[in-house]
């Protein structure tokens, strides 16, 4: 499986990008809302990401960045830009746009983004009659701050995966774009990411 990231000029062209479904539910998923997304690349600026879920009245109790949004109902996007190591970026959101953004090789070995780096993501949540969605931006400057020697712009591909998740027992679910073959729920495995080519 290879996801194709289309080059765009701005947000107005985001819906022209190739969409993906977050439809591989595994482990103890007692709730399976329909979720999807897409990614576009603005040359020399960064990546624009759209995530959406058909979920009316989603659980969204967290109100401060770095609160445990995975205990709400969350949409996540993980990206590995430097192909020479296992460090990756993780972005996790609830329907309010509350975010956990961090970088590192594993769930408990990640560096959190600074307040300014969170601001630079330009997170835009939106609630509709049919569900909720998040649009956010990953600046190239942020990528190179953490990975100054990354060569993804030369190789024109990265690795990524996308998730719909809640650890709350009433709506527990673990959905992903690319399925993960592990005995217990764990999205924080770069080996589960898929290749994404930048067209």
From TrEMBL:
GO molecular function: carbohydrate binding; hydrolase activity, hydrolyzing O-glycosyl compounds
GO term, biological process aspect, one: carbohydrate catabolic process
Top-level lineage group: Bacteria
InterPro entries the UniProt entry points to: Carb-bd_dom_fam9 (IPR010502)
Annotated Pfam families: CBM9_2 (PF16011)
Domain Carbohydrate-binding: 20-193
The protein's name: Carbohydrate-binding domain-containing protein
Native organism taxonomy: Bacteria, Bacillati, Bacillota, Clostridia, Lachnospirales
């Amino acid at each position: 499986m290879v996801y194709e990231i289309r080059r765009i000029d701005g947000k107005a062209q985001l819906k022209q990008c190739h969409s993906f479904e977050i439809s591989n539910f595994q482990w103890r998923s007692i709730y399976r809302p329909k979720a999807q997304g897409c990614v576009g690349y603005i040359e020399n600026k960064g990546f624009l990401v759209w995530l959406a879920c058909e979920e009316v009245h989603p659980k969204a109790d967290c109100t401060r960045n770095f609160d445990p949004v995975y205990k709400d109902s969350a949409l996540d996007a993980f990206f590995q830009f430097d192909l020479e190591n296992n460090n990756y970026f993780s972005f996790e959101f609830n329907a309010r746009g509350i975010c956990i953004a961090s970088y590192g090789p594993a769930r408990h070995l990640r560096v959190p983004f600074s307040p300014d780096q969170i601001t630079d993501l330009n997170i835009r949540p939106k609630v509709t009659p049919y569900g909720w969605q998040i649009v956010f931006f990953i600046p190239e400057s942020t990528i190179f701050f953490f990975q100054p020697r990354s060569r993804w712009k030369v190789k024109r591909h990265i690795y990524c995966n996308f998730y719909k998740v809640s650890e709350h027992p009433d709506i527990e679910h673990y959905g992903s774009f690319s399925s993960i073959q592990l005995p217990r729920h764990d999205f924080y495995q770069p080996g589960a990411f898929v290749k994404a080519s930048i067209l």
